[in-house]
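Protocol step 6 of 9: fold each sequence in the batch and record its structure tokens directly after the sequence line. For illustration, a two-sequence batch is reproduced in full.

Sequence one:
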Amino acid sequence: MEKNDWIAGGIFIALGIGIFILTIPFPSLDKGHPGPALFPNILAALFIFFGLLLGLKAKKPSVDKPLENSTAAASIPKNIGNAFFILGIIAAFMVLESWLGFLLTSFFLLFLLMKKLGTSAWKSLTLSVLVTVFVYFLFYKILRVPLSPGFLSW
């Protein structure tokens, strides 16, 4: 996996540098206020930082056991279904959010996601409620981002 880590780290570093280059012509604001390049530059710096970390990780010798009977099927991660499940949850959120509303959709999909990934029912229920309420108050009440009320519309 060291070779893959080197490649991925290099890609992230290249993306970070590319983002920095693309944000050079962005305008700056008066009185030292952050301009439109602030967040892309923060992301670029994070890409470069984590790309370097990944490269350093690849440099360290691996203590993993060697695979016996290595085949192409053995190189596929066993939890690939979880990645596809998460993509399905994202797609379901985009479809259901306008009809069910943000609160119900977020709660149900977070609960399903946590249950699928092995969290206990009580912990999934509690965290789903807390995260949904936190995100709702942060975005809807504080940042004033309009969120779909769905069929409840109260």
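Sequence two, same batch, same settings:
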Amino acid sequence: MVPSLDSVYALKLMFRAFVQSSFYMCAFTVVEQGVMKTINVNKLTKAGCKVKIWIADWFAQLNNKMGGDLKKIKTVGEYLIEIWKAVGMDIDGDKVEFLWSSDEINSRAHEYWPLVMDIARRNKLPRIMRYLIELENWMLP
């Protein structure tokens, strides 16, 4: 059975993908952060996906990257965005959106912090560490 144009259009709407990616800043950018992310994002946008890239500035500060100086961390994040543009990331239109974790958390602090406190209250550090190790193993190829 050949699908009708209406059903093909409906399938396209159903499968319009939003892909989220993130990066964690360090003092030195490696090839994977520049070239490989650009190649992969371009493949996704060419396939019709919209990509949101989360810049983990608060989490870099939490781990004392760049001496914990949020201004330096944001500068490095802005440099990385410029590197991606220079390498050829297709960011025209609304295909790629960059989101700073600090901005998003601050804009919804009334939702974020109660959740953080609830998780902290209900879980012990060893349990969270086990979960993170399992998550990391699951995410690695």
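Proceed to step 7 once all outputs are recorded. Observation for sequence two: The radius of gyration is 19 Å.
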